[in-house]
Amino acid sequence: MAKRKTIEGNPHILFEQKIEVEDIEKSAKEFYDVMDSRRSIRDFSDKPIPKSVIENIIRTSSTAPSGAHKQPWTFCVVESSNLKLKIRTAAEEEERKSYEGRMSEEWLEDLKPLGTNHLKPFLEIAPYLIIVFKKPYDLDSEGNKFQNYYVNESVGIACGMLITAIHQAGLVTLTHTPSPMNFLTKLLERPSNERAFLLLPVGYPANETFVPDIERKPLEQIAKFY
Question: What's domain 41-205's architecture?
Answer without folding.
Answer: 3-Layer(aba) Sandwich (3.40)
